[in-house]
């Protein structure tokens, strides 16, 4: 029995990670931590999780079990991940603290790194692209929600070296912003509204550029997020100007070669919607080619809290512990 602690279990992503691990046939959810709500049960704070465990204040001597899912905000995660790693615990970190490989870029977007000795040691945990590295990793950096959807949608084109230029239009439900409400995420601001945000630059831009670069597409991207009046769900529409002409058959082959055998990628024709992947680890992808401009328009839908965060963390844990990748997720 492999024991797992979930840190930050009252956050939106942490609560779902705990919910999935509590019912997982292989892992044992040993501890769920929180600060202000310690002493309460998780299912009192988040009834839908149906996890009757008492929330505990983090204590590395108790909570450094076989593995941990750290669901803290970036900045807060790094020092705790360092403590867990020093105790030998294998970690999936949901924050951005170990996703980037260029320290200057991290510091620019997030501020000074709080565990510099571990910087760059996280394996980027997008299993469809980095499965082999995740399997042997002790520290997995779970991707951001927008990068998950954008990279899965674009990877076949990036690997084929045919992205000349790309504009990524992205939309997310409000849970993407976490549990603490702000003026922008308050019901009164978000309801009946669709609005772009972080219009002068979003920190997922360098993350997407980094991972597209790993796939062979090194280029500056345009990325623009929007807030939707939904609780969960995320849709990316990527407008790709190809650097080479591609026939319909070639495009079909590129996407089939990448994803035909992927358990959590659903290739579709026609429009995709976030409701179709709600509360699942699936990413639904479709594309069209505009015959007038030649642009390839790729659609990619995920649940930001699931494939964009918590269920992807469990997919990564499955790989790290040599379990069937879909265990506890279908
Ligand atoms: N929401 C999403 O769609 C996605 C989130 N992520 C990432 O996952 C992580 C968790 O996100 P999410 O669940 O949305 O966030 P939330 O804000 O909902 O939850 C974060 C939790 O972390 C705890 N926390 C906050 N600050 C600190 C701190 N300084 N020290 C210790 N604990 C702290 C809080 O617990 P307490 O209340 O007990 O203090 C809080 O409940 C973040 O890094 C986020 O960027 C990644 C992809 C998608
Ligand atoms: C709607 C909304 O606000 N979404 C969040 C993305 C959440 C996410 O993926 O977070 P990290 O990369 O920080 O882990 C945002 O745009 O900041």
From TrEMBL:
Question: What EC number(s) is this enzyme filed under?
Answer: 1.2.1.38
Keyword Transcription regulation assigned to the entry: answer is: no
What catalytic reaction does the record list? N-acetyl-L-glutamate 5-semialdehyde + phosphate + NADP(+) = N-acetyl-L-glutamyl 5-phosphate + NADPH + H(+)
Q: Could you name the active-site residues?
A: 145
Q: Indicate the segments forming the Semialdehyde dehydrogenase NAD-binding domain, all copies.
A: 3-137
Q: Which UniProt keywords apply?
A: Amino-acid biosynthesis, Arginine biosynthesis, Cytoplasm, NADP, Oxidoreductase
Q: Which GO terms describe its cellular component?
A: cytoplasm
Q: Which residues cross the membrane?
A: none
Residues in a coiled coil are none
Q: What does this protein do?
A: Catalyzes the NADPH-dependent reduction of N-acetyl-5-glutamyl phosphate to yield N-acetyl-L-glutamate 5-semialdehyde.
Please give the NCBIfam families that the UniProt record associates with this protein: argC
Q: What is this protein called?
A: N-acetyl-gamma-glutamyl-phosphate reductase
């Amino acid at each position: 029995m492999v024991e797992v602690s979930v840190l930050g279990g009252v956050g939106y992503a942490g609560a779902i990670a705990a919910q999935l691990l509590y019912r997982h046939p292989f892992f044992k959810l040993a501890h769920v931590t929180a600060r202000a709500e310690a002493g309460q049960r998780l299912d009192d704070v988040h009834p839908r999780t149906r996890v009757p465990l008492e929330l505990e204040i983090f204590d590395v001597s108790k909570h450094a079990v076989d593995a941990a899912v750290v669901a803290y905000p970036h900045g807060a995660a790094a020092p705790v991940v360092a403590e867990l790693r020093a105790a030998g615990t294998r970690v999936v970190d949901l924050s951005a603290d170990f996703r980037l490989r260029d320290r200057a870029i991290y510091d620019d977007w997030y501020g000074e790194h709080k565990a510099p000795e571990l910087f760059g040691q996280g394996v980027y945990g997008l299993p469809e692209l980095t499965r082999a590295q995740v399997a042997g990793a002790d520290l997995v950096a779970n991707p951001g929600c927008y990068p998950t959807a954008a990279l899965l949608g674009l990877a076949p084109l990036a690997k084929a070296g045919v992205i000349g230029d790309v504009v990524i239009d992205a939309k997310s439900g409000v849970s993407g912003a976490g549990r603490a409400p702000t003026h922008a995420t308050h019901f009164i601001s978000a309801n009946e509204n669709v609005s772009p945000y972080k219009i002068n630059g979003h920190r997922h831009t360098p993350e997407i550029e980094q991972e597209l670069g790993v796939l062979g597409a090194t280029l500056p991207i345009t990325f623009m997020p929007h807030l939707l009046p939904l609780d969960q769900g995320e849709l990316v529409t990527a407008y790709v100007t190809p650097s080479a002409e591609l026939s319909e058959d070639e495009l079909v082959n590129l996407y089939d070669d990448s994803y035909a055998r992927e358990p959590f990628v659903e290739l579709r024709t026609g429009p995709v919607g976030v409701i179709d992947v709600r509360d699942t680890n699936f990413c639904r992808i479709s594309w069209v080619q505009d015959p007038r401009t030649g642009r390839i328009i790729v659609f990619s839908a995920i649940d930001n809290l699931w494939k964009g965060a918590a269920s992807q963390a469990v997919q990564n844990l499955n790989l790290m512990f040599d379990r069937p990748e879909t265990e506890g997720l279908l």
